[in-house]
Design a protein that fits this description.
about 325 residues, alpha/beta, Rossmann fold, N-(1-d-carboxylethyl)-l-norvaline Dehydrogenase, domain 2, nine-stranded mixed β-sheet, 12 helices, 9 strands, disordered N terminus
Amino acid sequence: MLSVNHHHDAVHEGNHPMTTNNAVTVLGLGAMGSALASTLSERGYRTTVWNRTPAKAAPLAAKGAIVATTAAEAVTASPLIVMSLLDSTAVTEVLGGIADVVADKLIVNLTSGSPKDARHNAEWAHEHRAKYIGGALLGDPPYAGTPSMLISLSGDREALEAHRSTIDELGRTTFYGDDAGVAAVEFLAQVAIGYEFLIGLLHTFRLIHTEGVDVAEFAGRVAETMTGYAPLVTMSGAAITSGEYAPDLGNLNVQVALMDDLIEHRESAGVDTTRMREVRTLMQRRIADGHGDEGFSSLFELLGSQQTSPENGR
């Protein structure tokens, strides 16, 4: 189990920082980086900023931020370095330019990237005698500095705690452990859940639209139905952790009987059947393995290195 520490009450509403060293540097002034830097500057932090395109620093300079001409100059100004860049390629380029001045600094990288990238960056930081926190942001720039900005963090716990009051100014933070890549795992998984759900939703909307059903009215009914899935999500997580699969949604022997109708309905309407065929294949395999009395969550046991072939579902 990951050790998760929640700091939900750490977001301040405009209070001045209660730290002895309140200097912080923000590298990257896109929409998100600018919002983060603005939050820090407005709350009394000695904020140094840098961006590859200098013009983006002008609004922050007007708010009292110090504008550095190079990334290395910006890093030299503060013990805490917050990175909010375009992508992992940009991170690698910037790290290369600050290698000589990063010793004894804490880098908190809030740029979206893979767990592999975060772990590589943490190794790089260690080699250059710096500390590293991998992070990710769930929220739009206007949410910066509020509890609506969800910030996942993982990496050097001791260094994080030394600068916790500053970092907590940026949003609602959660620390996921010493592995610098786990914050990216959390972020990518949260985003993926949304896309997995939404593509299935759109295919279903296509189905009922083809059948002449009002999509807007149906969407309203689905929104009400979705509230019932929250307990199922929690139950499924617990079942996977324990390995004890109760017949959620009914047992698989009953559920599988619906699959032919679901697939044939979609085929008759010319709607994609990939996901439904995958579900049927998994149910049939699980039942064949002697687990027909278990629920949908037990299909988890079939996922992993072995890929399911929906075409073999019949």
